[in-house]
Design goal:
heterodimer, A: 245 residues, mainly alpha, 9 helices, elongated, B: 252 residues, alpha/beta, 4-stranded antiparallel β-sheet
Chain lengths: 245, 252
Amino acid sequence: MTRVILHKELAQMLRAPATWLVLGILFVLLAWQFIGRIDPWLALQPELAKLPAAPGLTESLIAPAFNATAWALLLLGPLLAMRLLSEEKHQRTLTLLTSAPISLRHIVLGKFFALLVLLCAIIFFSAMLAASLHLGGALDWGLIASNLLGLLLLAAFIAAFSLFVSALSPHPLMAAMAALLLLFLLTQLPGFTGDSKWLPLVSPLYQFEPFNLGVIDASACVYFALLTWAFLWLTMTALDRAKRY
Amino acid sequence: MPDIVSSESPSTPRLAARGLTKNYARHAAVNGVDVQLHQGEVLGLLGVNGAGKSTTLNLLTGNLIPHSGTVNICGADLLRDPVKAKKHLGYLPEVAPLYPDMTVDDYLRFAARLHGVAKNNLLAALESTKARCGLADKSTTQIGKLSKGYQQRVGIAQAVIHNPQVIILDEPGVGLDPAQSNQMRELIRQLAQNSSVIFSSHILSDIETTCSRVAILHQGKIVLDEKLAGFATRHGTSLEKVFLRITQETAA
């Protein structure tokens, strides 16, 4: 049943011109900033080559590019998620799903995976950009793999979080704005708190950093998995509570 | 009046609700409502606006959880085993749950899969439902571009595509012109051949021409529940008079 929902959501999102517009803009921006890094790097190349442990192609170009992908995910998640529950509430179509012989778990998971698939399109596009550098030199595939894993975990968290905010409001735009604002605040927390030890821990981008540097951090994996699970559970709870009041 | 239901109903009802109560803030929107629906019956739920009709139907379909009371659909408890109970249920809410960007075919196919219609039965269910609901020539039309009457038909089609035993329609006649209303009544009579139907309305003629039984809901309580056959003889007056008396008595 999760698949029935997943198919419907994907088809609906791909039918909407807005989805293609947002995806297209993000693709262009990502490609642009990626290409923009290549020239300065080539100009610095003679200097860099003199260093004993010069940073490689992957470190200097691909890691920052993947960092930009992480930002693109933060932007895209809330915008796509507003359709998934908030608009269903607004159009009062959610009743079709909640009257059918299908549990809330399947509804939420179907929508979550549909969103994750679209977020993975951005990750895939970034991976293609990175792989294109293979034409010009040797790549550190380990670093690329750790980045992709990190992005996937980050995308899962963003999808679950945005879906939860989408479940709270029957106003799609409000849901998208609230999710964007909250995610942005979470990413800025380390900057606000200076030396605080625990506040950076709630920042998703802070948790993504080790992956970006090529380290597969087990505690960060657990962090993303737990938060994703928690927000999916909260989404189901929010939908269930709506029936009780 | 059409004779839809046999005078003898089987002993186990298709749908049985007992003591349904739902409170909003401090007042009870629905207060101790009992509903029974037997095979082949068309039950009209009659009430003025705000009487609690939609709340009752939302409780019967699991879209609201009651503060107390039970709902049993074809032997399955709606609160304890909602997935099993909802298999026997088709529901058209007050606002038809339609996706304007989908075509009629895509939408009905999705509704069928959602209600557990097997893949190899899908095409047959789709075609027969479209034929029944008069949608055969609208297969590839986007729902958003259909007229209100056709949209309402799509709403009914999604509720019946899986041949449920119990069909619940919340004010299916709202916003329809007289010709469309007639077609709607005809469709409900057809549906009653295989299923039991509950529909709510505040239009007396809809109830009188379509239903075998009427329940009047007033201020969250069922104040009258009986067969329509012989109604005038038993009460010595029409359903309309009885309805007006009930609703005006308490208003005064």
